[in-house]
Give the backbone structure.
Amino acid sequence: MPGGVKRDYRGNKKDLPVRDAPRNEYTSMFEGFRDELDKHHDRREKIVKVSRDVTALSKKIIFSLQRVRKLNQPLPDNIVKENEERMSEIKSMLATIVDDVSGIRRYRYNLMCLEEFVEAISFAYYLEHQRLITPETMQSTLGDVNIPFTANDYVYGLFDLTGEMMRFATTVTALTGSIPTGVAAGAEDVQTGADAPRNILGDLQDISSMLQLMQLNDRTYFKKKDVMIEQVRKVERVGYGVTVRGNERPKGWMPDMNEDAGHHDDGSAE
Amino acid sequence: MADNTNTMIDPKIFQYLQAHAEEQTEVGDKLTQIITGFNRHISTAQGHLSRIHATPLQKLGPLLSQVESEGIKPAIESIGELNKFASNYPYYKYNFRWRSAVQNLIYVMLITAWLGGLSSESKPGELGRLLRIEEIGEILKVPVNLEDRDAFHITIEEYILALTDLTDELSRLAMNSVTMGNIDLTVRISQFIKDLFAGFQLLNLKNDIVRKRIDAVKYHVKKVEDVIYDLSLRNLIPKAAEQV
């Protein structure tokens, strides 16, 4: 039986017992393969660890942001400060694997954390500017950490953003009695004939239709698309409810957030 | 502060997403087209190769030439096309599309060469010859185990998986060779599979497809050992062959 790597309780490799099987014509070939495969496995393990930590930090950023109550305003100082610390931690962790995911290796290893990171950053950007972050701006948040986001990191991060927008819309609407809306347009906008301030429901509908129009052809896309459409519908119901009977509800009344929590992939709402 | 323009989405973002989706669709369609032809050539080769179990070693020559001319040669052209096209895109983004086809081709080449085919001017065909991964790369005219640049290549995993296909098929041939009266060949296969098995044991494996396939090699060894046991019990193994 070919053995796996023996590890101690901390996950460090234990030295393998020396095998003294007789050498044959192919021994050195397999030794070469072993070295290559070991390099690959070690790299993957290192990346998985970093990815897990970056995912956890990104989720914490998102939790903080869900405590924001206003749209299109500078974020509260304490939240900005907390999240800046998390960002610099994320950057220093990603910096340790730049070489492991560079060049041909960028697509070789699964860097799931970047999707989560895009979700966190695009949510922060949306809350502050009420706009969708561009891929270039997203890339610039990593500073000199040279790990390019792939198009899929960006796209799937945006799909997850819609979930955060839904949660934010639902909570803020329940607490304030009106759906989150941007601040009134300035004089400049009046001159250009821009419309009244947008609200989050319209923004969600915009993102949703854009992501449906792009039409990727893979399973993740179809799955995330279905979840997103359900989220948009939910905020539509919130918008309707607040329009028709908004004032009848006591302030602070919270809808049951669990009613279709099963639709969200990670359940991080609670 | 409100932004100057009252739109949620910069049109550049939509363009970016569309370009991404279009590339994925176009690359996917083109790969399907190349890989369909590729698989057909491999099936042709495998179809011919299925006759090795009913063809005595002395008569294998014409069969192997047929495998080479009708299967391997056109498959090499497919690989060339794949190499040229796929090298324009990140290798690991799309390699799941052709992995099994490439692995099957490597296997076809390995068994053809082991049976004495795929001779070249520098390397005459010879029974029991194992093509190394570098030789596979030379014949296919593509790099192997590429790390320093992003282009099409043959991976070590593909080669290792093809080796397990080889031990599987040879373990079957070991038995059929007895039926065809060539016990020398059975003994030879037995030694070869044992050598490869010893090699596989040097690898540190994770719980993945490579491990799963290599775990099966012990059954190939056992299958051949059972045949050898049956033969030695009845004193059917020639003395000379025993020493091979």
Chain B has two domains: 20-154, 158-244. The radius of gyration of chain B is 23 Å.
